[in-house]
Amino acid sequence: MDVNAQYNVAAPDSLPVKIAAFQRRKMYEAFIVATGIQPEDSILDVGVTSDRSYDHSNYLVAWWPHKARITAVGLDDARFLEEVYPGVRFVHADGRELPFEDNSFDFVHSSAVLEHVGSNDRQAQFLRELARVARRGVFVTTPNRWFPVEFHTVLPLVHWLPRSAFRGLLRVFGKPFFADEANLNLLGAGEVKRLAVRAGIKNPRLDTVALGGWPTNLLLSAIK
User: Fold this and answer.
1) Which among 132, 135, 119, 112 is positioned nearest to 35, based on CA atoms?
2) Cα–chain-centroid distance for residue 75?
3) Which of 138, 137, 161 shows the shortest CA–CA distance to 148?
4) What are 118-139's pLDDT values in tens digits?
5) What is the CA radius of gyration of the chain?
6) Structural domain count of the chain
7) CB-based contact 88:57 (threshold 8 Å)
8) Cα–Cα distance for residue pair 107/53, rounded to 1 Å
9) What is the pLDDT of residues 15-58, one digit of tens each?
10) Are 42 and 105 in contact (CB under 8 A)?
11) Contact 158/169 with Cβ under 8 angstroms?
12) Beta strands in 93-173 (DSSP E)
């Protein structure tokens, strides 16, 4: 069930991974500020991975101190999280069809998953599900398509081309996995806003984290 392993192509000590760790620390802090989360609040973290190559792969589970308030969901077999972080509960599930009742959790968090769930229709479905099970708010991060380097493939600029040309070049470069829309569908700020509206998310807010003044990641939040 380790379906996310193919997303981790950069070496653990590489520059892209170091940048990702630095930016994820910013996103974690932004989550805390945006939500105003308290120790007693429950969290659903959607899209956890089985990856252990990077210490920031499941950053919220790793860094939020109140483990017993976290339920982690993913398509990967990430049961190890329950052992490494006692108190965490893992549920194997698809974020587009969550096995929870409406308003089951105070906050729903998902980082670097939206770009991997498929077409715009599937992305809207994913956001709709996150909002459905959130009682007080959602917080979602995704890479900014308009940052010069595409972090999954570590290729510069080619992802700025029309999507069909980008996917064609990925096949030429020997990266057919990422050429499939089902595995990688990058978004810009305007697209994320439109998806939030399609998903019925009320009062969505879009923020960014930047590197050298250039936004690397988009942060979608909606706090009730």
Assistant:
1) 135
2) 13
3) 161
4) 999 999 999 999 999 999 999 9
5) 16
6) 1
7) no
8) 27
9) 667 788 899 999 999 999 999 999 999 999 999 999 888 778 89
10) yes
11) yes
12) 105-111, 134-143, 149-150, 155-156
Whether residue 39 contacts residue 66, with contact meaning beta carbons closer than 8 Å, is answered with yes
Q: Give the pair of three-digit tokens for residue 55.
A: 């210490």
CATH number of 62's domain? 3.40.50.150
Tokens of 126: 């994913």
Q: Which domain holds residue 47?
A: 5-223
Please name the amino acid found at residue 200.
G
Burial profile 148-173: b = 16 or more Cβ within 10 angstroms, e = fewer = ebbbbbebeeebeeeeeebbebbeee
- CB–CB of 112/137 below 8 Å? no
Detail the DSSP E strand segments found in the chain. 43-46, 70-74, 89-92, 105-111, 134-143, 149-150, 155-156, 205-211, 214-223
Helix (H) or strand (E) holding 44: strand 43-46
Contact indicator for 62, 21 with CB cutoff of 8 Å:
no
